[in-house]
Amino acid sequence: xxxxxxxxxxxxxxxxxxxxxxxxxxxxxxxxxxxxxxxxxxxxxxxxxxxxxxxxxxxxxxxxxxxxxxxxxxxxxxxxxxxxxxxxxxxxxxxxxxxxxxxxxxxxxxxxxxxxxxxxxxxxxxxxxxxxxxxxxxxxxxxxxxxxxxxxxxxxxxxxxxxxxxxxxxxxxxxxxxxxxxxxxxxxxxxxxxxxxxxxxxxxxxxxxxxxxxxxxxxxxxxxxxxxxxxxxxxxxxxxxxxxxxxxxxxxxxxxxxxxxxxxxxxxxxxxxxxxxxxxxxxxxxxxxxxxxxxxxxxxxxxxxxxxxxxxxxxxxxxxxxxxxxxxxxxxxxxxxxxxxxxxxxxxxxxxxxxxxxxxxxxxxxxxxxxxxxxxxxxxxxxxxxxxxxxxxxxxxxxxxxxxxxxxxxxxxxxxxxxxxxxxxxxxxxxxxxxxxxxxxxxxxxxxxxxxxxxxxxxxxxxxxxxxxxxxxxxxxxxxxxxxxxxxxxxxxxxxxxxxxxxxxxxxxxxxxxxxxxxxxxxxxxxxxxxxxxxxxxxxxxxxxxxxxxxxxxxxxxxxxxxxxxxxxxxxxxxxxxxxxxxxxxxxxxxxxxxxxxxxxxxxxxxxxxxx
Length: 612
Hints:
The protein has three domains: 22-122, Carboxypeptidase-like, regulatory domain (Immunoglobulin-like, Sandwich), CATH 2.60.40.1120; 151-237 and 427-488 and 502-607, Immunoglobulin-like; 239-423, von Willebrand factor, type A domain (Rossmann fold, 3-Layer(aba) Sandwich). By secondary structure, it is an alpha+beta fold. The chain is 23% helix and 27% strand.
């Protein structure tokens, strides 16, 4: 008998499917070569049904009653494998991907590339028939998003929220779609979809860090409703105006990072960032696994070979002392602090903290204290299977940085090359947006997205309340769907016994829709500044609106479809594509063109009834 090994990765991904029963699907590949394995037999105990993988290594069991099933995988030259308690949920697809590794001293299994001793050793395996510890179930974590409904303007005339430039949600959802899976609903944060893209806004006036750009038009997915487009543009930062950077790369090299989409991609990403550094910058590298350690002391950015060599030597293994790594990284950043410079820790991880300071609340308090000392935190997420989305987003928010998800080398180039100044250099801190609606023109409104960025109205002028940061050259976009005054009421407003709902006389005789107020702090300032703008006039019909308006509306509509939002109205993918296709702009890096391909893929993945 040849000596045989196997390894598998099992993940459970839920997506919409037809009928009240569920499905099990997956793909079976060779662990070493990555080749698909056709003809593998998969049998389900409870129903006795046998399926085989097709020429692409894929299989599918349809019309399974909800419950738990036992799957048996068998293929000549590979050890048989049994997986128990595979959960099937109604109207969902449970994805079970299996990776088989076989090492043979005799006849090779078909489609298998012989593994060398070194390859097997790097995989943490032994040349004996033992079963490795599997990555059992998908442990990715996402916070539940509760979309807020419409607010009556007479009851709540103010809407207040923190600016947000994060775009991790879009890149993460794209990862699902490119793997032919619909993302979980709570992967999709509408504002991060919208803010993934740049928009052609007016640059700020001299001496101002931000400009306000307003537009008013028809709502594409709700006849009779209107859409308000609010865009902020931060000033560009010329090369000679960029402050020297003290960067600490805090890199997760734990065992969970041993995957082609994790540590190898991480190395490629940080190579790109290293190439952008100048002699005035300095870089330190801290890694963490079972323990944290300094692998590169502060090194000038001009010593690129030294930095790249240190990155190349990194290997994955061990547990994840994330808390200990953060403590060491901030200590190194403090030891090399540059007065009036850009002092920043850049954490790259899959989010799996399980040793050291492991609770989000403890990490948050620690990071907030360092933020107040002038050391900011940027977080880059990698990989799949155990990604902790909400934790990374919250830590980046508390650290006055932003959260990006790197799913491929092109996204690494976007974040660390094309948008490097926006990623590293903060132009405005604690940016808050407050909108006051005119009840003579607007009956009710809802802010699309920003659910975890909402603020109390009283927080707007409270400089102790943390808000969002905006980097150099960044744009921030927000959309409000509004119901104009005089439209049919959306709910039953309670009559008040002790007061009247009345308008100020001046509000009736003007055509102002709303007033936008912005508060922000200078990067090193302690007190906030405020400026404002007014939106007035009649709504534009969609085809006469700007490319900014049409493209952002298309992206918002796409996000609502993926979320199956109760507010999606008549949204459909055909309309999304037509609207976005009419507003491609210059698109120098092809991000908008890629959006159209994602719409096409989702159209194929969704049920026919959702396609139009």
